Amino acid sequence: MRTVRLSTAQALVRWLVAQRTRIAGREVPLFPGVFAIFGHGNVTCLSEALEAVHDQLPTWRGQNEQSMALAGLGYAKAVRRRQIMVATSSIGPGAANMVTAAGVGHTNRLPILLLAGDYFASRAPDPVLQQVEHFHDPTVSVNDAFKPVVRYWDRITRPEQILSSLPQALATMLDPADCGPAFLGLCQDVQGEAFDCPARFFEPAIHEPPRPRPDRRQLAEAAALLAFARRPLVIAGGGVRYSEAEALLAAFAERRRLPVAETIAGRSVLVHDHPSNVGPIGILGSSSANRLAGEADLILAIGTRLQDFTTGSWTLFDPEARFLAINAARFDAWKHRALPLVGDALACLEELDAALGDWRAPEDWLARARHLYAEWNAFIEQRTGPTNAELPSYAQVVGAVNRLCAERDLVLTAAGGLPGELCMGWRVKAPATFDCEFGFSCMGYEIAGGLGAKMADPSRDVIVMVGDGSYLMMNSEIYSSVLTGHKLIIVVCDNGGFAVIDRLQRAKGIPSFNNQLEDCRRVGELVRVDFAKHAESLGAIGIRARGTGELEDAFRRAKAADRTVVIHIEVQPHDWTEGNGAWWECGTPEVSARPSVQEAYARHLAGKHRQRLGV
Questions:
Q1: Is 353's pLDDT higher than 90?
Q2: Is the peptide bond between 111 and the residue preceding it cis, with omega within 30 degrees of 0?
Q3: Domains and CATH numbers, the chain
């Protein structure tokens, strides 16, 4: 057997380069790049290996370990999990910074390969710089913190271990059911140790995600259940996108007269004016989808994990409604006693369509869905229309940007008040043009994820919509976007703090406290941030806009600009789009001296009374 003598780091990197995939018929690298911040735990060995192949496997310098890993996840979303970015850090705090990003990937079922430095396998120099010592278990390091938030975890303590660990990590990240982050802790001494690696380990390999077909018995039961329904409603989740089943679902729904509601992750599966579209569902959804959910006798859930923001904490549905769940993950397909159809969304829809014969849902059911959707659209048109107000609402800002964006532009957000206003108010012009990270609801994903999405597809504008709170948490990848030439259009909606959490606080009868800047403990006059000037200090173009008229002018300038533009606009802190009929369970004090809290608890109990308890 022919061997090549390499260090562990060199062998790992050479293996990464050898992995390939196909996208739209083209062969491309499976690992298109590495985000890296080097420290003593990865600079002396891993960087040496990466530098040698920087033309084949580009290394991009991040500004923060969390944000660079979030950029990798934004990339994975934009390419529908068809490619996998790598993120590497040193040991200690650098590695710990990536744990939050791992949580985002794990929750949203997104692949990323995380490589962190680790202690010395020999333990000879222990304790080393940045090593966290566990008094009763010397094998524990900061890297053990990744275990709850990754799908695959290993610590490399011998060079030969990568021969089995890397393929297993890759199999996990490519599996449509198990997909999520994979983590390898690379002991510092082992990174540099040489071994005789079999040459065939580096033979080029082409990987394509599998499309598991449904079980025949499950398929027959699913077709019978759907054909029996009189008021079926489809809920389309992110799995539809990752299966590339948007066009098939659109045709299937139209042919079968099925109304389709979208989850947050499933937004932009259908275009806004598709005849089956009834709007987003759930807490951040539309009154049309939510009312149909309460009337439906069958819910066909496709590629969704049925998060509480989708189900209204399980209060949206008729207690007698049945569930039919198409999902690649058995765990998701079996939720709430659904009839499971386990398999790839596209493959399952193809076979389910064939099994249904000439069945179609009743015409009056789809007619009702279209009527409710028209009512919702009229309501949103009023909310998002032009205004002369000096301080516009979030909805009016969303409307202004939506009207001016191009068909293929990607709009991206994550946490705070913008997910609700975007999910409810954004009119999708083309599939796969909407990214709202609301599985982990990670403040800070916005700009970093936008950078990754732009790297994945430089041909379209990426519009990042972010609140002032999230911007202050994580903004340094603006500098990365300028350095690398990946232009973003960033709209900062400044409402003076964490206004959406202030809204929740007050809804529970609690006075505003420590969320808005005006309500937090401080010394002296309140200082507000000039986000446009801050962006200029990072090399971007900064624009202050007052009102939606100036915002529209600023957006046109941003479209024509040659680099990242940050538009700072102040918005109303208490004007939110409401009235979709959804309820969300959130902890409420059972006892309090405040009458307002007592009233909130009474409303809480009323919501609990409507809850469907897993059966």
A1: yes
A2: no
A3: 3-207 (3.40.50.970), 216-373 (3.40.50.1220), 385-570 (3.40.50.970)
